[in-house]
Amino acid sequence: MTSDSSSLPSEPQTRARVRRGPWPFIRDILVILIIAILVSFLVKTFLVRSFYIPSGSMENTLLKDDRILVDELTPRFGGYDRGDVVVFRDPGGWLPVSYEPAQPPLAAALDWVTSLVGLTASDSEEHLIKRIIGVPGDHVVCCNALGQVTVNDVPLNETPYLKLGEGQQAPQEVEFDVTVPEDSIWVLGDNRDSSQDSRYHQDQPGRGFVPMENIVGRAFIKTWPLDRIGGIDGHHDVFSSVPAREPQ
């Protein structure tokens, strides 16, 4: 019985197969990794971005070390509303100056890559997160006889989101009487007695207002820890009776 030699690989073919080695597999992995990083970079730059909460200023809406996603795209078309919870860059002087030691090049590169794919949010401590109380043109005042903030002469019932101490009916009063200029917002923290927000920066050049260009986006979902996954409520009904005013 004779064998069919045509079914056996020729010697040159065998050598070619051996010569391939691990390189094609490594190349494919590198290509996939590069594409993933580029896609993550585009998503982070134009669509959504991950942050963690570094303080308790937004309790109980957001707790310290919560992780959130921020919508960067939608507000570019629809703008921002009273009640929106927004992440923004420091307008200047809101955050203490911090000095971080220089990282070794390899560690810095690794931190940059992991931030692109959402595994870290290394710039969270360079940003702030608060709730919008006043939009351009609004006259915002603290406080009426009940300790309520008023917007365009309408008192706000903020109990759905304010953190108050036991027996406390309203936050401690920090007086302000402002009209929000064009392309700016007035922001306050939900944990009002523990929030360094617009009220405490009225003596600075920005007078406590946050320029629209400093806003990164609207926080819309909590992603960590698992037992806190869920949407972030804008409580827009609190502001539903507030009339609009044109900025002056």
TrEMBL record:
It is a single-pass type II membrane protein. Keywords: Hydrolase, Membrane, Protease, Transmembrane, Transmembrane helix. It catalyses: Cleavage of hydrophobic, N-terminal signal or leader sequences from secreted and periplasmic proteins. Its EC number is 3.4.21.89. The keyword Protease applies. It is an enzyme of class 3 (hydrolase). The chain crosses the membrane at residues 29-48. It is found in: Cell membrane; Membrane. GO terms for molecular function: signal peptidase activity. Belongs to the peptidase S26 family. This is Signal peptidase I. It comes from Microbacterium dauci. The gene is lepB.
